[in-house]
Each structure stands twice: as structure tokens, then as C-alpha cells.
Design a protein that fits this description.
Elements (H helix, E strand, L loop, with lengths): L1 H16 L3 E6 L4 E3 L10 E6 L5 E7 L2 E3 L11 E3 L1 H4 L6 E3 L8 E8 L7 E10 L6 E5 L2 E9 L4 E7 L8 E7 L5 E8 L8 E7 L4 E7 L4 H40 L12 H5 L6 H24 L1
Parallel strand pairs: 1-9
Antiparallel strand pairs: 2-7, 3-4, 3-8, 4-5, 6-7, 8-9, 10-11, 11-14, 12-15, 13-14, 15-16
Bound molecules: 2-acetamido-2-deoxy-beta-D-glucopyranose (5 copies).
Organism: Oryzias javanicus (Javanese ricefish)
InterPro entries: BTN3A2-like_Ig-C, Ig-like_dom, Ig-like_dom_sf, Ig-like_fold, Ig_V-set, T-cell_Activation_Regulation
Subcellular location: Cell membrane
Length: 306
């Protein structure tokens, strides 16, 4: 009984005090979980994930991989360095690292002629650095956002040059299906004009990134500049059109005065009065007259054939 308790105590002491190796893997990348052993004949290697839930990861014995009991979540993503096993390298290569892969991994190794079978543990953590920060402004809000981050990021606002004022700001953090974080924050600008640069800093324990924004004045400020410009442009345009029309009208008048009449006598019954009236619409009226005469003529023909 006492022996059992001592053993139990020692095992617990070993679990509590053991220094697990640590490895940090980048999300989506390939990662190597190191494991070395004293190799011998017929090596056996069992990789398992111990926490948060026990899962079979990769097994090797009788000189080949045995993936019959491999957990579905690791399917097609694991491999050993086959040519290195004989040198005592039982390291596991894991492709397409996911947040769910985080946890403590056990590497059990033994050999036929080795008395010391053993298990070592490696604690694996995942990180996804802040890649890109988006900033935009809608009216009096500056919005800063970024996504695909792990672990949970922290966001803070500052100004350049530093300002003693505090700005109302609100941050929301959301988790995506891949367990990555999306963060966005809005900062409310004061009505006062300023020349400050607004800086948004997003950080995780392993990295930090910042982006800055200079205030753009919102629509009512822009309106004060744009509306008068549009009015001035419109007035100039109107004046130009009037001048051009006047010039064209004068030229046509001069041209009509010189030119002898070319219209056929039978077509200009309607146009006769106007052609002498110096009107720029004369030609149009003449054409209409011709069409109408033509129609009349056909109708008359139709009537006569009837
Ligand atoms: C894995 O082991 C090799 C050789 O001992 C070492 O160079 C490398 O830094 C180790 N990798 C990690 C992530 O600990
Ligand atoms: C095992 O071999 C792989 C591939 O050469 C290497 O990346 C890794 O660091 C090695 N691990 C150890 C513990 O030697
Ligand atoms: C693994 O590392 C994480 C983060 O450093 C730590 O919180 C956790 O307790 C470690 N787990 C083990 C089993 O060492
Ligand atoms: C953002 O809001 C917090 C309180 O919610 C405040 O302590 C902080 O100073 C604000 N940031 C800025 C740049 O004003
Ligand atoms: C932040 O994200 C949430 C969820 O996507 C959205 O509802 C909210 O409008 C966003 N806030 C800003 C300031 O864009």
C-alpha cells in the first residue's frame, strides 16, 4: 500500500515537474515535432495527441507506417522522416497546421533490443500573425480591422503627435470557423478639425503591427467646397453656350443673306414666307414641307387610282 502511494506520488511529481519541449507552429504551414530515441532493431514509434483529447496521430512499426487507427483530423497530414529513423530521429512532420492541432503530443518509442522504451512530450502551440490591417473612414468614424489572427489579438489606438484627448472607441472580436480571430474597432472623431495621424496597433503575444490614417473631411465639409465650384462651373458653361449660339446664329444669318434660293418651286409653298423671314429654322421647315407635299401627292395618286 505504502509502496503504491509512493509510486503514485512519484508519478504525479514527474507529471507536474516534467519540462515538456515546446514548439510553436504557424497556422497553415508545415511543422516538425521533434523526437529522438535510442534506436535498435525493429523500432516502434507511436505519436499521439494527449490534450485536449487523446487522439492517435501516427504509428510506425515493422518497418512501415500504420495509420489504421489514425484520428480523422490528422488524415493525410502526417509523415515521419523514414531515412532518419535508423539514426534515432522519430520526429513528426505535420502539414497544414490548424488551431485545433494545439496541445500536448506524446512520442512513444521502443526497439526490440532496447530495454528503455520511453515516451517524451512536446507542447505544441499555434500562431497566426497579424498580416494586413485595413483602415477606412465613414463620416466621423475611423474603422480599423484585421482578420486571420491567433491567439486572440489586442487592439489599441494612439495619435501622432501624441494627444492628451481621449477618443470614444469600441472594439469587437469574433472567432471564425477556423478558430482564428477577426478584430475590428471604431474610433469616433471629434467635430474639431485636426491634423492628427490616428494609429491603430494590433498585437498578439508574438507580434504586433500598426497602421495609420489621416482624417478625411466628411461630406458636409466637402460640400462647402464642392457646391460653389459646381455653381461657378455651371455659370461659365451657360455663358459659353450662349456666346457660341449667338455666333452661330449670326453666321447663319450672314450666310443665308448671300445664298440664292435652291428650293424647287413646287416644294416651297410652306417655306416661301419663312425663307424671306431670315429664320434659322427655314431649312427644317422646307424639308417638312417637301415630305408633306410628297405625302399629299401620293394620296392624290391613290385617290385618282381609286
Ligand atoms: C529539432 O531538432 C533539431 C536537431 O536537434 C534542431 O536543430 C531543431 O532546432 C529542433 N527543432 C525544434 C522546433 O525544436
Ligand atoms: C529529424 O530530421 C528532420 C529532417 O531532416 C529534421 O528536420 C529534424 O530536425 C530532425 N530532428 C531531430 C530531433 O534530429
Ligand atoms: C503548453 O503550453 C501552454 C502555453 O505555453 C501552457 O498553457 C500549457 O500549460 C502547456 N501544457 C503543457 C502540458 O505543458
Ligand atoms: C479608447 O477607449 C478607452 C476606454 O474605452 C480609453 O481608455 C482609451 O483612452 C481610448 N483611446 C483613445 C486613443 O482615446
Ligand atoms: C465589426 O464587425 C461586426 C461583425 O462583422 C460588424 O457587425 C460591425 O459592424 C463591425 N464594426 C465596424 C465598426 O465595422
Amino acid at each position: 500500500m505504502n509502496k503504491f502511494f509512493i509510486l503514485f506520488f512519484l508519478i504525479n511529481l514527474w507529471i507536474l515537474t516534467r519540462e515538456d519541449a515546446e514548439v510553436s507552429c504557424q497556422f497553415g504551414q508545415t511543422c516538425v515535432l521533434n523526437c529522438s530515441f535510442m534506436t535498435g532493431r525493429d523500432p516502434v514509434i507511436h505519436w499521439s495527441q494527449e490534450t485536449p483529447r487523446r487522439k492517435e496521430v501516427h504509428s510506425y512499426y515493422e518497418n512501415q507506417d500504420h495509420l489504421e487507427n489514425q484520428d480523422q483530423s490528422f488524415k493525410g497530414r502526417t509523415s515521419l522522416f523514414r531515412d532518419q529513423i535508423s539514426r534515432g530521429n522519430a520526429s513528426l512532420q505535420l502539414n497544414g497546421v490548424m488551431v485545433q492541432d494545439e496541445g500536448s503530443y506524446g512520442c512513444y518509442t521502443s526497439s526490440y533490443n532496447e530495454i528503455a522504451a520511453g515516451e517524451t512530450f512536446i507542447n505544441m502551440t499555434v500562431y497566426a500573425p497579424v498580416q494586413k490591417i485595413n483602415m477606412r473612414q465613414t463620416e466621423n468614424l475611423i474603422i480599423c480591422s484585421s482578420d486571420g489572427i491567433y491567439p486572440e489579438p489586442h487592439l489599441s489606438w494612439s495619435t501622432s503627435p501624441p494627444s492628451s484627448r481621449t477618443f470614444q472607441n469600441q472594439t469587437t472580436v469574433q472567432k471564425t470557423e477556423e478558430l482564428l480571430y477577426h478584430i475590428n474597432s471604431s474610433l469616433t472623431l471629434s467635430d474639431r478639425e485636426d491634423e492628427l495621424e490616428y494609429i491603430c496597433t494590433i498585437s498578439t503575444p508574438s507580434d504586433q503591427r500598426r497602421a495609420s490614417w489621416r482624417r478625411r473631411y466628411d461630406s458636409h465639409v466637402i460640400a462647402w467646397i464642392v457646391i460653389p465650384l459646381v455653381v461657378i462651373a455651371a455659370v461659365i458653361g451657360l455663358v459659353v453656350i450662349l456666346v457660341v449660339s449667338l455666333v452661330v446664329w449670326r453666321r447663319r444669318r450672314a450666310w443665308r443673306g448671300q445664298k440664292p434660293s435652291h428650293t424647287k418651286p413646287d416644294l416651297n409653298r410652306n417655306s416661301e414666307e419663312t425663307s424671306s423671314g431670315e429664320n434659322s429654322e427655314t431649312s427644317t421647315i422646307t424639308i417638312y414641307g417637301a415630305i408633306w407635299n410628297h405625302v399629299d401627292h401620293e394620296e392624290q395618286q391613290a385617290v385618282t387610282t381609286l
